[in-house]
Design a protein that fits this description.
This protein is mainly α. The chain contains eight helices and six strands; from the N terminus they run H-E-E-E-E-H-H-H-H-E-H-H-E-H. The protein has one domain.
Length: 182
């Protein structure tokens, strides 16, 4: 069932750029035949092509490991801005880099064990650190796209379910081959 869930998420996002943005245990059923049933399509989101490309370029090592490319993509996503102070630049750059490395970590493998308590703890700790950082509540700190909020909600929802299932799943990373930095 875990494999079906991650495949469902990746297919929606990478093939259709339209996804169920409220994945939690109450929105899924499993039939007697072990089929996944998805409920409550009240929060379905479409991903614009330019946002999709920039967002998932961050998953590519060649972009993450090239500071200039990484900064360009962060600017395209309105996470970094030309007028940022040194403090703002450092805050948003480091937060984005840490978040991207953590969220995209499973895509670096052919299969990934979501039951890993250390990985789950890092996700929780990072989320809490961002939530509790008062710098993110300042008016100039409202950054990025609303599309990212819904993608993060979908990823963390599915990751949480997979963690509870103590699941190892195959990762289909073929979407990265289609992404080109421009």
């Amino acid at each position: 069932m875990a494999q079906t869930l991650i495949d469902f998420l990746f297919c929606q996002i990478h093939e259709h750029q339209c996804f169920h943005a409220d994945p939690h245990p109450g929105n899924f059923l499993v039939t007697k035949n072990n089929e996944l049933v998805v409920l409550d399509f009240g929060c379905v989101k479409r991903i614009p092509k330019d946002f999709y490309t920039n967002y998932f370029l961050l998953s590519k090592k060649e972009v993450r490991n090239d500071k200039s490319k990484f900064i360009d993509v962060l600017k395209n996503l309105d996470i970094l801005r030309d007028g940022d102070s040194e403090v703002e630049y450092k805050l948003f750059y480091e937060t984005a880099l840490n978040a991207v490395e953590l969220i995209s970590y499973p895509t670096q493998f052919d299969s990934f064990y979501y039951g890993d308590k250390a990985y789950n703890q890092k996700l929780q700790t990072q989320g809490e650190a961002i939530f509790n950082n008062k710098e993110f509540r300042k008016p100039n700190s409202i950054r990025g796209s609303k599309h990212a909020i819904y993608l993060h909600r979908a990823f963390f929802g599915v990751f949480s379910i997979l963690h509870r299932l103590d699941a190892t799943v195959k990762m289909d990373n073929s979407f990265m081959e289609k992404l080109k930095f421009q």
